[in-house]
From TrEMBL, chain B:
This is Ectoine/hydroxyectoine ABC transporter permease subunit EhuD. The chain crosses the membrane at residues 20-42, 49-77, 188-207. It comes from Marinithermofilum abyssi. The keyword Cell membrane applies. One of its GO terms (cellular component) is ATP-binding cassette (ABC) transporter complex. Residues 14-206 form the ABC transmembrane type-1 domain. Pfam families: BPD_transp_1 (PF00528). One of its GO terms (molecular function) is transmembrane transporter activity.
Length: 301, 225
Protein backbone atom coordinates (compact mmCIF):
# COMPACT_ATOMS: atom_id res chain seq x y z
CA UNK A 1 0.00 0.00 0.00
CA UNK A 2 2.70 2.36 1.11
CA UNK A 3 4.85 1.46 -1.89
CA UNK A 4 1.98 1.93 -4.23
CA UNK A 5 1.17 5.32 -2.87
CA UNK A 6 4.73 6.50 -3.20
CA UNK A 7 4.89 5.35 -6.79
CA UNK A 8 1.76 7.22 -7.56
CA UNK A 9 3.04 10.39 -5.98
CA UNK A 10 6.30 10.02 -7.83
CA UNK A 11 4.44 9.63 -11.07
CA UNK A 12 2.43 12.75 -10.43
CA UNK A 13 5.50 14.70 -9.60
CA UNK A 14 7.38 13.74 -12.72
CA UNK A 15 4.41 14.98 -14.69
CA UNK A 16 4.48 18.22 -12.72
CA UNK A 17 8.17 18.77 -13.23
CA UNK A 18 7.98 18.21 -16.98
CA UNK A 19 5.74 21.19 -17.11
CA UNK A 20 8.25 23.17 -15.14
CA UNK A 21 11.08 22.41 -17.52
CA UNK A 22 8.96 23.24 -20.53
CA UNK A 23 8.12 26.57 -19.08
CA UNK A 24 11.69 27.39 -18.19
CA UNK A 25 12.79 26.65 -21.72
CA UNK A 26 10.23 29.08 -22.97
CA UNK A 27 11.73 31.71 -20.66
CA UNK A 28 8.59 32.03 -18.65
CA UNK A 29 8.54 32.30 -14.90
CA UNK A 30 8.69 28.71 -13.83
CA UNK A 31 5.66 27.96 -11.75
CA UNK A 32 5.02 24.33 -11.09
CA UNK A 33 1.39 23.57 -10.68
CA UNK A 34 0.36 21.04 -8.13
CA UNK A 35 -0.01 17.60 -9.60
CA UNK A 36 -3.49 17.02 -10.95
CA UNK A 37 -5.29 14.33 -9.06
CA UNK A 38 -8.69 14.00 -10.64
CA UNK A 39 -8.17 10.57 -12.09
CA UNK A 40 -6.52 9.12 -8.97
CA UNK A 41 -8.26 6.74 -6.61
CA UNK A 42 -6.91 8.38 -3.48
CA UNK A 43 -8.23 11.84 -2.81
CA UNK A 44 -5.85 14.38 -1.30
CA UNK A 45 -6.27 14.84 2.44
CA UNK A 46 -5.46 18.54 2.04
CA UNK A 47 -6.19 20.61 -1.02
CA UNK A 48 -5.17 24.27 -1.38
CA UNK A 49 -6.82 26.08 -4.28
CA UNK A 50 -5.74 29.54 -5.42
CA UNK A 51 -4.81 30.42 -1.86
CA UNK A 52 -3.51 33.94 -1.35
CA UNK A 53 -2.53 35.71 1.82
CA UNK A 54 -1.56 39.32 2.30
CA UNK A 55 -0.39 41.16 5.38
CA UNK A 56 -1.19 44.75 4.52
CA UNK A 57 0.54 45.47 1.22
CA UNK A 58 2.77 42.46 1.51
CA UNK A 59 1.42 39.50 -0.42
CA UNK A 60 3.10 36.45 1.10
CA UNK A 61 1.16 33.77 -0.81
CA UNK A 62 0.09 34.15 -4.42
CA UNK A 63 -2.72 31.87 -5.61
CA UNK A 64 -1.05 28.70 -4.41
CA UNK A 65 -2.41 25.30 -5.47
CA UNK A 66 -1.12 22.44 -3.41
CA UNK A 67 -2.24 18.89 -2.59
CA UNK A 68 -1.14 16.67 0.23
CA UNK A 69 -2.04 12.95 0.11
CA UNK A 70 -2.86 10.69 3.04
CA UNK A 71 0.35 9.36 4.52
CA UNK A 72 2.50 11.52 2.27
CA UNK A 73 5.52 13.31 3.71
CA UNK A 74 6.24 16.61 2.06
CA UNK A 75 9.19 18.80 2.95
CA UNK A 76 8.71 22.47 2.22
CA UNK A 77 11.91 24.40 1.62
CA UNK A 78 12.66 27.95 0.56
CA UNK A 79 14.17 31.22 1.75
CA UNK A 80 12.72 32.89 4.83
CA UNK A 81 9.78 35.06 3.96
CA UNK A 82 8.90 32.87 1.00
CA UNK A 83 5.50 32.02 2.45
CA UNK A 84 6.12 28.44 3.57
CA UNK A 85 5.31 29.06 7.22
CA UNK A 86 2.16 30.92 6.21
CA UNK A 87 1.07 27.81 4.27
CA UNK A 88 1.09 25.84 7.51
CA UNK A 89 -0.46 28.59 9.59
CA UNK A 90 -3.42 28.89 7.22
CA UNK A 91 -4.06 25.17 7.49
CA UNK A 92 -3.82 25.29 11.30
CA UNK A 93 -6.33 28.20 11.22
CA UNK A 94 -3.85 30.56 12.88
CA UNK A 95 -4.17 32.93 9.94
CA UNK A 96 -7.08 33.45 7.63
CA UNK A 97 -6.49 33.30 3.87
CA UNK A 98 -7.17 36.51 1.96
CA UNK A 99 -8.67 34.47 -0.86
CA UNK A 100 -8.87 30.90 -2.11
CA UNK A 101 -10.04 27.71 -0.45
CA UNK A 102 -8.51 24.93 1.60
CA UNK A 103 -10.12 21.52 1.86
CA UNK A 104 -9.33 19.02 4.58
CA UNK A 105 -10.48 15.45 3.98
CA UNK A 106 -13.12 16.64 1.54
CA UNK A 107 -14.47 19.40 3.80
CA UNK A 108 -13.97 23.10 3.31
CA UNK A 109 -11.83 24.54 6.11
CA UNK A 110 -12.33 28.30 5.96
CA UNK A 111 -15.77 28.10 4.39
CA UNK A 112 -19.07 26.48 5.08
CA UNK A 113 -21.31 25.18 2.36
CA UNK A 114 -24.73 26.66 2.86
CA UNK A 115 -27.22 25.84 0.08
CA UNK A 116 -24.42 25.18 -2.38
CA UNK A 117 -22.74 28.49 -1.62
CA UNK A 118 -19.50 29.02 0.23
CA UNK A 119 -19.80 31.33 3.19
CA UNK A 120 -17.05 32.19 5.71
CA UNK A 121 -16.74 29.56 8.42
CA UNK A 122 -17.56 30.31 12.04
CA UNK A 123 -15.62 29.07 15.05
CA UNK A 124 -17.86 26.02 15.40
CA UNK A 125 -17.08 24.89 11.87
CA UNK A 126 -13.36 25.54 12.29
CA UNK A 127 -13.46 23.50 15.48
CA UNK A 128 -14.95 20.53 13.63
CA UNK A 129 -12.47 20.52 10.77
CA UNK A 130 -9.35 21.60 12.66
CA UNK A 131 -9.31 18.37 14.68
CA UNK A 132 -7.67 16.59 11.73
CA UNK A 133 -4.63 18.87 11.88
CA UNK A 134 -1.81 18.99 14.40
CA UNK A 135 1.14 21.34 14.58
CA UNK A 136 4.60 21.55 16.07
CA UNK A 137 5.98 25.07 16.41
CA UNK A 138 9.43 26.50 16.04
CA UNK A 139 9.36 27.76 19.63
CA UNK A 140 7.57 24.71 21.14
CA UNK A 141 4.96 26.75 23.05
CA UNK A 142 4.55 24.23 25.86
CA UNK A 143 2.21 25.34 28.63
CA UNK A 144 4.57 26.64 31.33
CA UNK A 145 2.09 26.21 34.18
CA UNK A 146 1.60 22.49 33.62
CA UNK A 147 4.00 19.60 34.11
CA UNK A 148 4.95 17.42 31.17
CA UNK A 149 2.29 14.77 31.69
CA UNK A 150 -0.37 17.46 32.03
CA UNK A 151 0.93 19.28 28.93
CA UNK A 152 0.34 16.17 26.87
CA UNK A 153 -2.84 14.91 28.52
CA UNK A 154 -4.79 18.17 28.93
CA UNK A 155 -6.09 18.38 25.35
CA UNK A 156 -7.23 14.73 25.18
CA UNK A 157 -9.20 15.35 28.38
CA UNK A 158 -10.66 18.76 27.49
CA UNK A 159 -11.00 18.46 23.73
CA UNK A 160 -11.45 14.76 23.03
CA UNK A 161 -13.36 14.15 26.25
CA UNK A 162 -11.25 11.19 27.38
CA UNK A 163 -11.16 10.21 31.03
CA UNK A 164 -8.12 11.34 33.00
CA UNK A 165 -6.78 7.76 33.23
CA UNK A 166 -7.25 7.09 29.54
CA UNK A 167 -5.70 10.42 28.53
CA UNK A 168 -2.69 9.92 30.79
CA UNK A 169 -2.21 6.42 29.48
CA UNK A 170 -2.17 7.74 25.92
CA UNK A 171 0.08 10.63 26.92
CA UNK A 172 2.58 8.29 28.55
CA UNK A 173 2.70 6.12 25.44
CA UNK A 174 3.47 9.18 23.33
CA UNK A 175 6.04 10.52 25.78
CA UNK A 176 7.67 7.13 25.73
CA UNK A 177 7.84 7.27 21.95
CA UNK A 178 9.69 10.61 22.05
CA UNK A 179 11.94 9.41 24.87
CA UNK A 180 10.54 11.69 27.54
CA UNK A 181 8.77 9.24 29.82
CA UNK A 182 11.24 9.85 32.66
CA UNK A 183 10.25 13.53 32.94
CA UNK A 184 6.51 13.27 33.56
CA UNK A 185 6.57 15.49 36.66
CA UNK A 186 9.02 18.07 35.30
CA UNK A 187 7.98 21.54 34.19
CA UNK A 188 8.88 22.92 30.75
CA UNK A 189 11.20 25.56 32.25
CA UNK A 190 13.46 22.79 33.53
CA UNK A 191 13.89 21.07 30.17
CA UNK A 192 16.35 21.73 27.37
CA UNK A 193 15.03 23.05 24.07
CA UNK A 194 15.35 19.65 22.46
CA UNK A 195 13.43 18.01 25.28
CA UNK A 196 10.73 20.67 25.12
CA UNK A 197 10.33 20.14 21.41
CA UNK A 198 10.04 16.38 21.88
CA UNK A 199 7.29 16.94 24.43
CA UNK A 200 5.60 19.34 22.00
CA UNK A 201 5.69 16.59 19.36
CA UNK A 202 4.08 14.15 21.79
CA UNK A 203 1.46 16.75 22.67
CA UNK A 204 0.50 17.10 19.00
CA UNK A 205 0.64 13.35 18.30
CA UNK A 206 -1.58 12.42 21.21
CA UNK A 207 -4.51 14.06 19.41
CA UNK A 208 -4.03 11.60 16.53
CA UNK A 209 -4.30 14.11 13.70
CA UNK A 210 -4.46 13.01 10.08
CA UNK A 211 -2.07 15.75 9.08
CA UNK A 212 0.92 16.96 11.07
CA UNK A 213 2.60 20.28 10.43
CA UNK A 214 6.16 20.88 11.54
CA UNK A 215 7.07 24.55 11.34
CA UNK A 216 10.87 24.70 11.41
CA UNK A 217 10.94 22.40 14.44
CA UNK A 218 14.70 22.66 14.94
CA UNK A 219 15.38 26.29 14.00
CA UNK A 220 15.25 27.54 17.58
CA UNK A 221 17.49 24.80 18.96
CA UNK A 222 21.15 24.81 19.84
CA UNK A 223 23.02 22.85 17.16
CA UNK A 224 23.83 19.94 19.47
CA UNK A 225 20.12 19.43 20.24
CA UNK A 226 18.91 19.34 16.63
CA UNK A 227 19.73 15.68 16.12
CA UNK A 228 17.54 14.28 18.91
CA UNK A 229 14.48 16.12 17.57
CA UNK A 230 15.10 15.12 13.95
CA UNK A 231 15.50 11.51 15.03
CA UNK A 232 12.11 11.57 16.71
CA UNK A 233 10.48 13.08 13.63
CA UNK A 234 12.15 10.51 11.38
CA UNK A 235 10.82 7.73 13.56
CA UNK A 236 7.29 9.09 13.35
CA UNK A 237 7.63 9.59 9.62
CA UNK A 238 8.73 5.97 9.21
CA UNK A 239 5.43 4.80 10.69
CA UNK A 240 3.76 6.42 7.70
CA UNK A 241 0.38 6.86 9.38
CA UNK A 242 -0.08 10.57 9.04
CA UNK A 243 0.43 13.00 6.23
CA UNK A 244 3.27 15.31 7.20
CA UNK A 245 4.24 18.76 6.06
CA UNK A 246 7.75 19.56 7.19
CA UNK A 247 8.91 23.12 6.86
CA UNK A 248 12.61 22.95 7.32
CA UNK A 249 16.03 24.34 6.56
CA UNK A 250 17.67 20.99 7.26
CA UNK A 251 18.27 19.82 3.69
CA UNK A 252 19.74 16.42 4.43
CA UNK A 253 16.86 15.70 6.78
CA UNK A 254 14.36 16.76 4.11
CA UNK A 255 16.05 14.46 1.61
CA UNK A 256 16.01 11.47 3.98
CA UNK A 257 12.45 11.80 5.20
CA UNK A 258 10.32 13.30 2.46
CA UNK A 259 8.47 11.64 -0.40
CA UNK A 260 8.29 15.00 -2.12
CA UNK A 261 10.11 18.31 -1.82
CA UNK A 262 8.31 21.56 -2.49
CA UNK A 263 10.38 24.66 -3.10
CA UNK A 264 8.78 27.98 -2.26
CA UNK A 265 9.95 31.42 -3.25
CA UNK A 266 8.18 34.77 -3.15
CA UNK A 267 4.83 33.27 -2.28
CA UNK A 268 4.72 30.63 -5.00
CA UNK A 269 5.67 27.01 -5.46
CA UNK A 270 8.58 27.29 -7.88
CA UNK A 271 9.50 23.65 -8.21
CA UNK A 272 8.58 20.35 -6.68
CA UNK A 273 9.62 16.77 -7.10
CA UNK A 274 11.17 13.73 -5.51
CA UNK A 275 14.13 14.44 -3.24
CA UNK A 276 16.68 12.77 -5.58
CA UNK A 277 15.60 14.96 -8.42
CA UNK A 278 15.31 18.19 -6.44
CA UNK A 279 18.71 17.89 -4.82
CA UNK A 280 20.69 16.37 -7.68
CA UNK A 281 19.02 17.89 -10.72
CA UNK A 282 17.18 21.07 -9.77
CA UNK A 283 15.52 22.51 -12.85
CA UNK A 284 14.88 26.15 -12.06
CA UNK A 285 17.55 28.78 -11.61
CA UNK A 286 16.06 29.90 -8.34
CA UNK A 287 16.19 26.47 -6.77
CA UNK A 288 19.76 25.95 -8.00
CA UNK A 289 20.73 29.27 -6.46
CA UNK A 290 18.93 28.44 -3.21
CA UNK A 291 20.63 25.07 -2.87
CA UNK A 292 24.01 26.57 -3.67
CA UNK A 293 23.60 28.94 -0.77
CA UNK A 294 23.15 25.97 1.52
CA UNK A 295 26.29 24.31 0.29
CA UNK A 296 28.22 27.50 0.96
CA UNK A 297 26.85 27.63 4.48
CA UNK A 298 27.90 24.06 4.93
CA UNK A 299 24.63 23.23 6.58
CA UNK A 300 23.58 20.64 4.08
CA UNK A 301 24.67 17.79 1.83
CA UNK B 1 -2.82 60.03 79.79
CA UNK B 2 -3.32 56.50 78.36
CA UNK B 3 -5.84 54.56 80.44
CA UNK B 4 -5.59 50.77 80.35
CA UNK B 5 -8.89 50.47 82.17
CA UNK B 6 -10.62 52.39 79.43
CA UNK B 7 -8.77 50.44 76.76
CA UNK B 8 -10.01 47.11 78.08
CA UNK B 9 -13.50 48.50 78.46
CA UNK B 10 -13.81 49.52 74.81
CA UNK B 11 -11.88 46.59 73.35
CA UNK B 12 -14.88 44.24 73.10
CA UNK B 13 -16.94 46.93 71.36
CA UNK B 14 -14.21 47.44 68.77
CA UNK B 15 -13.67 43.71 68.30
CA UNK B 16 -17.38 43.41 67.51
CA UNK B 17 -16.95 45.70 64.52
CA UNK B 18 -13.70 44.08 63.41
CA UNK B 19 -15.72 41.35 61.74
CA UNK B 20 -17.69 43.93 59.76
CA UNK B 21 -14.47 45.50 58.44
CA UNK B 22 -13.08 42.11 57.45
CA UNK B 23 -16.26 40.80 55.80
CA UNK B 24 -16.88 44.09 53.95
CA UNK B 25 -13.32 43.98 52.61
CA UNK B 26 -13.55 40.38 51.47
CA UNK B 27 -16.99 40.80 49.90
CA UNK B 28 -16.00 44.04 48.12
CA UNK B 29 -12.79 42.43 46.88
CA UNK B 30 -14.77 39.48 45.51
CA UNK B 31 -17.07 41.91 43.67
CA UNK B 32 -14.02 43.75 42.32
CA UNK B 33 -12.34 40.51 41.17
CA UNK B 34 -15.38 39.22 39.31
CA UNK B 35 -16.44 42.67 38.06
CA UNK B 36 -12.90 43.38 36.91
CA UNK B 37 -12.79 40.17 34.90
CA UNK B 38 -16.12 40.95 33.26
CA UNK B 39 -14.96 44.49 32.43
CA UNK B 40 -11.66 43.17 31.04
CA UNK B 41 -13.55 40.79 28.73
CA UNK B 42 -16.07 43.43 27.68
CA UNK B 43 -13.21 45.80 26.92
CA UNK B 44 -11.61 43.18 24.65
CA UNK B 45 -14.84 42.43 22.84
CA UNK B 46 -14.74 42.63 19.06
CA UNK B 47 -18.21 44.15 19.30
CA UNK B 48 -17.08 47.78 19.11
CA UNK B 49 -20.00 49.36 20.92
CA UNK B 50 -19.59 47.10 23.97
CA UNK B 51 -15.86 47.73 24.07
CA UNK B 52 -16.37 51.49 23.82
CA UNK B 53 -19.12 51.66 26.45
CA UNK B 54 -16.94 49.61 28.80
CA UNK B 55 -14.02 51.94 28.24
CA UNK B 56 -16.20 54.97 29.01
CA UNK B 57 -17.57 53.30 32.14
CA UNK B 58 -14.11 52.42 33.43
CA UNK B 59 -12.82 55.94 32.85
CA UNK B 60 -15.88 57.50 34.47
CA UNK B 61 -15.68 55.37 37.61
CA UNK B 62 -11.96 55.85 37.96
CA UNK B 63 -12.07 59.61 37.63
CA UNK B 64 -14.84 60.22 40.16
CA UNK B 65 -14.36 59.88 43.95
CA UNK B 66 -15.52 56.59 45.48
CA UNK B 67 -17.25 58.54 48.23
CA UNK B 68 -19.50 60.25 45.70
CA UNK B 69 -20.31 56.87 44.17
CA UNK B 70 -21.20 55.49 47.61
CA UNK B 71 -23.52 58.44 48.24
CA UNK B 72 -25.24 57.87 44.92
CA UNK B 73 -25.77 54.19 45.65
CA UNK B 74 -26.92 54.70 49.21
CA UNK B 75 -28.79 58.03 49.18
CA UNK B 76 -29.86 58.57 45.55
CA UNK B 77 -30.82 55.09 44.34
CA UNK B 78 -33.59 54.65 46.99
CA UNK B 79 -35.41 57.54 45.27
CA UNK B 80 -35.61 55.33 42.23
CA UNK B 81 -36.81 52.34 44.17
CA UNK B 82 -33.53 50.60 44.97
CA UNK B 83 -32.91 50.59 48.71
CA UNK B 84 -29.83 48.76 49.91
CA UNK B 85 -28.54 48.10 53.40
CA UNK B 86 -25.40 50.06 54.32
CA UNK B 87 -23.34 46.88 54.13
CA UNK B 88 -24.63 45.85 50.69
CA UNK B 89 -24.36 49.38 49.32
CA UNK B 90 -20.82 49.67 50.66
CA UNK B 91 -19.71 46.33 49.24
CA UNK B 92 -21.19 47.10 45.83
CA UNK B 93 -19.86 50.67 45.73
CA UNK B 94 -16.34 49.82 46.79
CA UNK B 95 -16.38 46.63 44.69
CA UNK B 96 -17.40 48.42 41.49
CA UNK B 97 -14.92 51.23 42.04
CA UNK B 98 -12.02 48.83 42.39
CA UNK B 99 -13.26 46.51 39.64
CA UNK B 100 -12.23 49.22 37.18
CA UNK B 101 -8.69 49.13 38.55
CA UNK B 102 -8.60 45.35 38.60
CA UNK B 103 -9.84 45.20 34.99
CA UNK B 104 -6.64 47.01 34.03
CA UNK B 105 -4.64 44.54 36.08
CA UNK B 106 -6.30 41.61 34.32
CA UNK B 107 -5.66 43.30 31.00
CA UNK B 108 -1.96 43.61 31.74
CA UNK B 109 -1.89 39.96 32.80
CA UNK B 110 -3.71 38.77 29.69
CA UNK B 111 -1.45 40.83 27.45
CA UNK B 112 1.57 39.27 29.09
CA UNK B 113 0.62 35.77 27.89
CA UNK B 114 2.68 35.13 24.74
CA UNK B 115 0.88 34.74 21.42
CA UNK B 116 2.35 31.28 21.07
CA UNK B 117 0.22 30.06 23.97
CA UNK B 118 -2.94 31.05 22.10
CA UNK B 119 -1.65 29.38 18.98
CA UNK B 120 -0.70 26.18 20.75
CA UNK B 121 -4.17 26.08 22.31
CA UNK B 122 -5.77 26.60 18.90
CA UNK B 123 -3.59 23.90 17.36
CA UNK B 124 -4.87 21.48 20.01
CA UNK B 125 -8.42 22.52 19.10
CA UNK B 126 -9.42 23.97 22.46
CA UNK B 127 -12.74 25.81 22.33
CA UNK B 128 -12.53 29.55 23.08
CA UNK B 129 -13.90 29.02 26.60
CA UNK B 130 -11.48 26.17 27.35
CA UNK B 131 -8.64 28.28 25.99
CA UNK B 132 -9.40 31.02 28.49
CA UNK B 133 -10.03 28.73 31.43
CA UNK B 134 -7.25 26.22 30.96
CA UNK B 135 -4.46 28.06 29.20
CA UNK B 136 -4.74 31.84 29.25
CA UNK B 137 -6.20 32.92 32.60
CA UNK B 138 -4.03 30.69 34.79
CA UNK B 139 -0.99 32.25 33.14
CA UNK B 140 -2.44 35.76 33.09
CA UNK B 141 -3.29 35.86 36.79
CA UNK B 142 -0.03 34.41 38.09
CA UNK B 143 2.17 37.46 37.41
CA UNK B 144 -0.44 39.95 38.66
CA UNK B 145 -1.12 38.27 42.02
CA UNK B 146 1.12 40.76 43.88
CA UNK B 147 -0.70 43.73 42.31
CA UNK B 148 -4.05 42.20 43.21
CA UNK B 149 -2.82 41.67 46.75
CA UNK B 150 -1.96 45.36 46.93
CA UNK B 151 -5.48 46.26 45.92
CA UNK B 152 -6.85 43.97 48.63
CA UNK B 153 -4.84 45.93 51.21
CA UNK B 154 -5.83 49.28 49.71
CA UNK B 155 -9.48 48.24 49.85
CA UNK B 156 -9.14 47.15 53.46
CA UNK B 157 -7.86 50.60 54.32
CA UNK B 158 -10.70 52.25 52.39
CA UNK B 159 -13.44 50.57 54.42
CA UNK B 160 -13.61 53.45 57.00
CA UNK B 161 -15.16 55.40 54.12
CA UNK B 162 -18.22 53.19 54.56
CA UNK B 163 -19.01 54.93 57.84
CA UNK B 164 -20.12 57.83 55.64
CA UNK B 165 -23.07 55.69 54.57
CA UNK B 166 -23.84 54.73 58.20
CA UNK B 167 -22.06 51.37 58.21
CA UNK B 168 -20.54 51.09 61.66
CA UNK B 169 -17.18 49.48 61.10
CA UNK B 170 -13.97 49.85 63.13
CA UNK B 171 -13.35 53.55 62.73
CA UNK B 172 -17.04 54.38 62.92
CA UNK B 173 -17.28 52.58 66.25
CA UNK B 174 -14.17 54.42 67.53
CA UNK B 175 -15.72 57.75 66.60
CA UNK B 176 -18.93 56.89 68.41
CA UNK B 177 -16.95 55.91 71.50
CA UNK B 178 -14.98 59.13 71.22
CA UNK B 179 -17.95 61.42 70.95
CA UNK B 180 -19.69 59.68 73.85
CA UNK B 181 -16.73 59.70 76.26
CA UNK B 182 -14.59 62.56 74.91
CA UNK B 183 -11.66 60.15 74.83
CA UNK B 184 -10.18 59.60 71.38
CA UNK B 185 -6.62 58.49 72.14
CA UNK B 186 -7.34 54.88 73.04
CA UNK B 187 -10.07 54.03 70.48
CA UNK B 188 -8.26 55.65 67.54
CA UNK B 189 -4.93 54.10 68.50
CA UNK B 190 -6.57 50.68 68.78
CA UNK B 191 -8.16 51.09 65.37
CA UNK B 192 -4.77 51.96 63.91
CA UNK B 193 -3.27 48.84 65.50
CA UNK B 194 -6.10 46.65 64.19
CA UNK B 195 -5.54 47.89 60.67
CA UNK B 196 -1.81 47.34 61.01
CA UNK B 197 -2.34 43.74 62.04
CA UNK B 198 -4.93 43.12 59.29
CA UNK B 199 -2.84 44.70 56.53
CA UNK B 200 0.26 42.89 57.63
CA UNK B 201 -1.44 39.49 57.72
CA UNK B 202 -3.01 40.14 54.32
CA UNK B 203 0.34 40.98 52.80
CA UNK B 204 1.95 37.88 54.36
CA UNK B 205 -0.85 35.84 52.85
CA UNK B 206 -0.26 37.32 49.41
CA UNK B 207 3.48 36.68 49.61
CA UNK B 208 2.87 33.07 50.56
CA UNK B 209 0.44 32.63 47.70
CA UNK B 210 2.91 34.19 45.29
CA UNK B 211 5.73 31.94 46.46
CA UNK B 212 3.61 28.86 46.13
CA UNK B 213 2.67 29.77 42.59
CA UNK B 214 6.25 30.53 41.62
CA UNK B 215 7.48 27.22 42.96
CA UNK B 216 4.81 25.47 41.00
CA UNK B 217 5.47 27.52 37.89
CA UNK B 218 9.16 26.92 37.66
CA UNK B 219 8.84 23.43 38.98
CA UNK B 220 11.77 23.79 41.38
CA UNK B 221 10.04 21.46 43.78
CA UNK B 222 7.14 19.12 43.62
CA UNK B 223 4.70 21.58 45.08
CA UNK B 224 1.11 20.53 45.38
CA UNK B 225 -0.71 21.45 42.21
Amino acid sequence: MRRLKRNRVGHLISKGSERVSEMTENNHVAVAEAPQSNQEQTEPIVRYRKVSKSFGDNQVLKEVDFDLYPGERVAVIGPSGSGKTTMARLLMTLEKPTSGTIEVDGRQLWHKEVKGKLVPADEKHLHEVRGDIGMVFQHFHLFPHMNILKNVSVAPIKVLGLSKEEAEERAKTMLDKVGMSDKLEAYPANLSGGQQQRVAIARALVMRPKVMLFDEPTSALDPELVGEVLDVIKEIAAEGEMAMMLITHEMSFARDVADRIVFFDEGRIIEQGRPEQIFTAPKTDRLQEFLKRFELNGSSS
Amino acid sequence: MWSWDFTFKILPQLLDTLWITISATIAAFAVAMIGGLILAFARRSTFRLLSWVTYAFIEFIRTTPPLVQLYVIFYVLPRYGLSLSPFTAGVIGLGIHYSTYLSEVYRAGIDSVPRGQWEAATALNFSPLQKWKTIILPQAIRPVVPVMGNYLIVMLKETPMLSAITLVELLGRAQIIGSNTFRYLEPITLVGLFFLVLSYSASRLVIRLEKRMNINHHGKMDAAA
